[in-house]
Amino acid sequence: MATLRKKRVSNDPPQHTPLIGRTGRAHDGNALAYNVAPARDLRPWVGWFAATHAEKPDNEVLEGGILGDHAAIRVCHGGTWTALTADGPRVFAPGEKGMALYFGPQSKVMRTSVDGSFKVISIYLGVGGAQALGAPAQSEIVDRVMDFDELMGRGHFASLFDFAAPPQVWYDTFARDFGRYFQEVTPPRPDRIALEFETCTLADPDFTLQDFAEANDVSIRTVERVVRKAYGLTPKQVMRRARALDLAAALMGVAMSEEEAEMRLRYFDQSHQIREIRHFFDRTPRQLREESNPLLMLNLEIRQSRRMEALKRLSPDKPAPWRDPRMEIRPR
Q1: What is the pLDDT at residue 187?
Q2: Residues 45, 174: one domain?
Q3: Is the pTM of the predicted complex or chain greater than 0.85?
Q4: For 96-122, what is the mean pLDDT?
Q5: Residue 17: which pLDDT band, with cuts at 50, 70 and 90?
Q6: Number of domains in the chain
Q7: Is the pLDDT of residue 2 over 80?
Q8: For residue 311, what are the domain limits?
Q9: Cα dist. 230→51, 132, 287 in Å?
Q10: With CB atoms 3.0 to 4.6 Å apart as the test, which of 182, 200, 205, 268 could cross-link to 242 if both were Cys?
């Protein structure tokens, strides 16, 4: 049944909230992540860090989905997770020791569900991040989930984290480990065309490839080759997905409200919006706006926080307007 979201004034989560956030909440009480922009020595290979601690007050399995534009390492603690991947359904039970999973980028929403309360540390790779880690090419892992320890052969990554510590400590642990790794391997800088395409896609994914190629003094074929290597998809697929991600975030109330009108204008008409949103999320725009979908909201809000920081549209000292400022965790 759809649950209408309404702005609240109490610090206590509403009774109907299926996921109670301990790392942040939206104004309606839904759980949000603790977001951190990585230190400069980790960029551009790491695009964003997010930590989520959420409790489920009931015994029902919470169903939802995720849609990401880059690969991500997710260190999970607690809960039993199911993901419908390109390789079929995968079930993960990280338990108290935790488990690190490597998610490839998604071409459309990946159905996920969780049974039980959980903590998740999410390390979102940036342009060139997969190559810097020595991971498979992006095109090989689209819509797939892999065991990070088996993939990298660097030991039990989850064991680095003290899950009883606050999320600021999780960030410090990640930053130290990745900082040492990048110093040892000195990965090459990503292609400048890929970085510029990322910036343009975050700002306004409604440009033509010809205009982008001319502005960067390269051929369209070069743009297509570079983007496919960086994202695992064609430039047009990447831009379509970015438009859908932005509009979905606005519909779910985790984007700048003044941007929603412009985001809608990226589509020819309402029927075009409906087709695209249904293609990427298997939902109509109205369903995204009115139904409670905590897992997807978490996912979309993390990307919008990264987007706002990259475009310098939010003060780093103030929480995003869709977040409840009384529930914020401050960086140390």
Answers
A1: 95
A2: yes
A3: yes
A4: 97
A5: low
A6: 2
A7: no
A8: 192-327
A9: 25, 12, 32
A10: 205
162 and 213 inside one domain: no
Query: How many CB atoms are closer than 10 A to CB 58?
Result: 7
Q: Are residues 196 and 107 in the same domain?
A: no
Is residue 127 located within the same domain as residue 175?
Answer: yes
Please indicate, yes or no, whether residues 173 and 209 belong to a single structural domain of this protein.
Answer: no
Higher pLDDT, 11 or 98: 98
CATH number of the domain to which 303 belongs = 1.10.10.60
- Is pLDDT above 50 for 15? no
Q: Are residues 91 and 213 in the same domain?
A: no
Q: What is the mean pLDDT of residues 117-131?
A: 97
Q: Please tell me whether residues 28 and 101 are part of one structural domain.
A: yes
Query: Is residue 332 one of the residues assigned to a domain?
Result: no
| 263-302 confidence digits (pLDDT tens) | 999 999 999 999 999 999 999 999 999 999 999 999 999 9
Q: Which of 165, 185, 205 is the last residue of a domain?
A: 185
